[in-house]
Amino acid sequence: MKKSNLFSSCKVLVTFFLIAFTLAPILLSSHPWPNEGRDYLFENASNETGASNSVSAIYLGYRAMDTLGETLVLLVSITGTMTILVGLVKKEKSDSPNTFLLTRDKRKSNQLRTHLLEVVSGKLGPIVLLFGFYVMLYGHISPGGGFQGGVILASGIVFLALGNQSEKETKLNNPIVLARIEGFSFLALILASTSGMLMGKGFFGNPLSHISANFIILLNIIIGLKVGTSIASMCIAMMGRSHDD
Amino acid sequence: MNLILLVLILALSIFVIASKDLLHSVIALSGISMLSALLFVLLKAPDVAITEAAVGAGISTVIFVWAIRHTRRREKEES
Q1: Distance CA A93, CA A28 (A)
Q2: Which of A52, A125, A129, A131 is most exposed, with minimal Cβ within 10 Å?
Q3: In this structure, are residues A196 and A209 in contact, taking their beta carbons and an 8 Å threshold?
Q4: Is residue A6 part of a domain?
């Protein structure tokens, strides 16, 4: 008992030492914060990319390649998760892999899903979906953007799936439909990003910059759909798996 | 205000590490996410705050709770 106490206090000490070691250069330095980049963005971001939210201007205008890499990472991780989940379902050879949709007395798992939770989340779902679309569509002028709106969309879809009291399978809680939307939006992202090359604007360049400056809205919609449907399909597939130990 | 939030975050994170029950840890973790979202709003970074609130308090909590409900708890007899 004494030995374990000593060991845990040692761990705490080492943790604090590491934190101090990491933060010391930031706290002790007298170097002023660099603000050239900030000033440049403040002056030029709205004119050069068409987005008055300069965070959107960075991640879909100046650094759009990084966003492409990020969505690729998300795609790969969702693919891995779904592969593992499908393998688990096959091993258990259950005849109905999606017990998520059954009513309360028929399913063995998810006993904590009471009527209260179902009613509240079913009524809250559409509002959350609307807010997600708002954050996604207005990402270029107000805080938010494709990724944030997509995650809110995903939680709205999960709410709707939790609050589904009939046993019917709708399009919004079918993981296959969601995964199909995800794949098509990734294809659309690649097509949209290469379309600038045909007009001589470079990769991720705006192909119609002489007509409209807001190429970023299109990219926000595509990224939002992709992120939202991928996270929602993963959550629904995880919660719908039958698991009786 | 910032200092209060930071102290609360530090206290909650110590609780997350020290707590024996994993479910308590996960709920405290989502509390940390909410507090840091508030901190980001106060520091005028609303984009980061939206992301933190949606991912940290929403999706990751759901996934953690799902994972904990499907694992068994086992303790050593003597410490």
Answers
A1: 60
A2: A52
A3: no
A4: no
User: For residue A145, what are the domain limits?
Assistant: 52-240
Angle at CA of residue A10, ends A7 and A12, nearest 5°:
115
* Structural domain contains residue B9: yes
Note whether B62 contacts A: Cβ–Cβ < 8 A.
Answer: yes
Task: Find the CB nearest A148 among B50, B66, B70.
Answer: B50
Give a yes or no: residue A72 inside a domain: yes
Number of domain units in chain A: 1
Contact A149, A135 (CB under 8 A): yes
Taking contacts as CB-CB distances below 8 angstroms, the residues of chain A near B10 are none
Give domain status of residue B76, yes or no.
no
Report if residue A10 sits inside a domain: no
* pLDDT tens for each residue of chain A, 245 residues long: 567 788 888 888 998 899 989 888 887 877 777 788 888 888 887 777 777 777 788 887 788 788 888 888 988 998 898 888 877 766 655 545 455 666 656 665 555 667 787 888 888 889 999 999 998 888 888 887 888 899 999 988 888 888 877 767 777 777 788 888 988 998 998 888 888 788 777 777 777 766 666 788 888 899 999 989 988 888 888 776 654 44
Q: Check CB contact under 8 Å for B54 and A155.
A: yes
Domain range for B27:
2-69
Cβ contact, residue pair A135, B58, below 8 Å: no
Q: Find the CB nearest A144 among B50, B59, B70.
A: B50
Residue B26 lies in a domain: yes
Contact residues on chain B for A135, CB-CB shorter than 8 A: 50
Q: Is residue B43 part of a domain?
A: yes
Residue B71 contacts A where some CB pair is shorter than 8 Å = no
Q: Which residues of B16-55 are buried (b: 16+ CB within 10 A; e: fewer)?
A: beeeeeeeebbbbbbbbbebbbbbbbeeebbbbbbbbbbb
What is the total count of domains within chain B?
Answer: 1
Q: What residues of A are in contact with residue B62 (Cβ under 8 Å)?
A: 158, 235
